[in-house]
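Late entry, written up from scratch paper. The run itself happened at the end of the previous shift, but nothing got recorded in the book at the time, so transcribing now.
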Amino acid sequence: GFQLYRTGAADILGSSQDPIPAARVPEVSSSPDFRSTPAFNTRYVAFNNVIEPFNNVQVRQALAHAIDRDTLANAVLGGTVTPTDRILPAGFPASDLVIEGLAFDPAAAKDLLGKAGLDPSTFTFTLSYGVEGDNERVVTVLQSMWQENLGIKVELEPLELATFSSRLNDTYLDPSKGLQSYYSIWGADYPDPQNFLSLQLQTGVGNNNSHYSNKEFDALTKEADTSVEDFAQRAELYNKAEQIAVNEVGWLPLFNAKVNVLVRECIKGIEVTGMDYQFPDWSKLAGCPS
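Output as recorded:
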């Protein structure tokens, strides 16, 4: 791909599904053709909410407060991603409404683990993940942060992507035989908060593999799902629901990836968004001179 771009055989390189690799970004980031925007996806950890001790919200909160997202995003991943403490990705509809996340706070993490009655020297769990991209790098850092900030040992379970997907399904069907925790990603199918909140975290929905459940969250999102007239009203409802899910660690959000692409300056009428290329006015689309 890079060779085609350099020789002029291609005018566009990269997409939201296949962005320019992070390792390549430093060599192209100063180019006037380089464009970068937050992707409409969220990397997160989820805990199996119906097995001990993750059925205790204080345990989930302790694990969230023990993670330093800024170090993960900037020192480990070189600033190629954007740290986040919320579920909706940056730039997504309703993400302009504020959420108060669970900040990095090792003292609060230790206090919550103590209140939950857990002894760090004996508490251990397994974090499963699919083998691809930077996943191994990320989970290894999470493992070390939980060790350093809480004194707990976490086992890492790498799985082939097909196996990981199958095990997520097992966790949904029978949580007692499922994964204890897992590192995953959700990317937007369509740009509406329903796609990240209702379809992921309502009680019993098919993507809710961690079995998060909160009646108020369900009521708020179901009302928002059916309030089709006024998006501002829907956004407020989703915002309240998102705050509940963040507080209770329905997901432990970590970062949003970036859409890193190269588009020659001579190409007009293309916008790069979190859901890929958009063409606001097809009549203004123009390519480079041949």
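The two ends are 19 Å apart (CA to CA).
(Scratch paper discarded after transcription.)
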